[in-house]
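hey team, just a heads up i'm posting the complex here instead of the shared drive bc the drive is being weird again. everything in one block, sequence lines first with there labels, then the predicted structure for the whole assembly after. its two chains so it's a bit long, scroll down
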Amino acid sequence: NAGVMQNPRHLVRRRGQEARLRCSPMKGHSHVYWYRQLPEEGLKFMVYLQKENIIDESGMPKERFSAEFPKEGPSILRIQQVVRGDSAAYFCASSPMGQGTNNSPLHFGNGTRLTVT
Amino acid sequence: GESVGLHLPTLSVQEGDNSIINCAYSNSASDYFIWYKQESGKGPQFIIDIRSNMDKRQGQRVTVLLNKTVKHLSLQIAATQPGDSAVYFCAENKYPGSNYQLIWGAGTKLIIKP
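-- predicted structure starts here --
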């Protein structure tokens, strides 16, 4: 968990509101990965971004979800018009270069727990 | 289909004993396997990984064993300590050569008895 910072730690939104989750990668890391975790389940991949580029968004829902990683500032995972089913923990990981099995494993932040009421 | 599952959802171990957490997988194409530990309210913490060209890998107090014949993965923790209490996840890569698209199991909760 060292170095990957996520905020807020807890976020409560009413149905229909927007949720914005932030992830600041470790210093020097230009690759960010977002995952979602439901209670008592493993993590599910959502999206992989490099600075200013989406590399792989195959795990992202087609609607309401978007992600960005601007040249400056944190990566943002945005959920529009939240529904109760969006309640989950959202984790971010970062790496200094693109991920392949020859590279080091991903290290995660402590997540944002989103509750939709 | 692809799946990673765990045989025991909860494992209770006496402090000082060794712990063994088991995991089954079904994706024959996976070439990378990894164990994470997750404490309550925290993100997954890397423990150890292993590639498919290996059968065994050791770390500090932990050993991962990979049996590709029966598609079985295990994590052994030596001399279990109270700080080892957590949920342990095994995961395999969905596509060979990648380690960010992982298929995660549901997790095993390790409880340490004093």
